[in-house]
């Protein structure tokens, strides 16, 4: 009798458990980020868990950005394979020159590479007369081009005309927005033009470049995700592999930079830098070596070395928010921050990463934020050695507005196709695998 009672009890518990699981799945809802990735999974409309490494927007919208700038793979025989995207097709073309002209919708796009060394600067004692500081462009090519025109940095044909002045981009040029490759190519080619004219375009690495270089594409815009898959046949690190032009270039960009008395990095400085004996060169070289070896490593662990912990660790240069947002035990006070800056021969810190309402000096003028809310139209400029806010007409894509609205909108988690739409899996499959790759014959120039 006891055995029968036990069996009935176990059976009843199993029935309740199965019923609960069915109810749990039936109640499941998701919210999406503007880039089309899952943001949170909800059960019973109240219990939530954050999701980071998956996503399925209803569909990609290629009509706004029908063209994707190329992924250029360089080969040992001095040829290159150019992968690009136009309308709803991915193309590949082999070229023997270090340039390519691509026509999409009767518009020509010219790309060239390796004309000059384009070595990264780590320290420079003399400040340029004018420095524009940008941060967190996040794949918004329209914003970048508009600001270059509004500030007369480029001429009518889009070429550098800012003489020996400089631009500093403090990281996060990629992810979230719809045109990562176009933004990177714009900065890459502009840096070549600037250097020939005596100027500079310094592009620093942020946490989103780290995502891309280590194969984490969870923050990719839905359009970029689909186009990248179509161009590469996968979503590995191949878009920025060591054999690609943009991959090589990104892997050699600094993570921290000093110009005159200004120190630039993406996230900020933790108190760990107070006792550090590493130079700016050592900090940068450790990151470059890491990214060069990344393909041989299965997973990055910040605790591998104290040096990498200062740069790519959880509270390293690309992640730390202590100067602007988070007040943690390892956030240096003003006296400690001054000592850290003095260690690096600087007295002012310029950072991005955390969006602020206003470009204004903080911590008694020692810290300047370069990343404002996208709707503000503000940028940081350094003129004759003095940092100040400049108001522009150009506005960024209002990611913050879309972020809040999309994260509030819950929809059913579609495990199976139904009358309301395809399943999550089928949406991903349609976006990633139903795009044919057309192999073009090499074209003469």
Task: Describe the protein's architecture and organization.
- This protein has 445 residues and is of the alpha/beta class.
- The protein has two domains: 2-60 and 411-424, no CATH class; 118-400, 4-Layer Sandwich (Purple Acid Phosphatase, chain A, domain 2).
- 29% of the residues lie in helices and 21% in strands.
- It contains eleven helices and 20 strands.
- It has helices at residues 2-27, 141-150, 180-196, 207-213, 222-232, 245-250, 280-293, 306-311, 334-343, 399-408, 424-433; strands at residues 29-32, 38-43, 47-50, 67-74, 80-86, 89-95, 99-104, 107-112, 123-124, 130-134, 166-169, 200-203, 256-259, 262-265, 348-351, 367-369, 378-383, 386-391, 411-412, 437-439.
- The strands form five sheets. It has a five-stranded mixed sheet. Strands 12-11-10-17-18 form a five-stranded mixed sheet. It has a four-stranded antiparallel sheet with strand order 3-2-1-19.
- A hairpin with a 3-residue loop joins strand 2 (38-43) and strand 3 (47-50).
- 38% of the residues are buried.
- Residues 298-303 and 434-445 have low confidence and may be disordered.
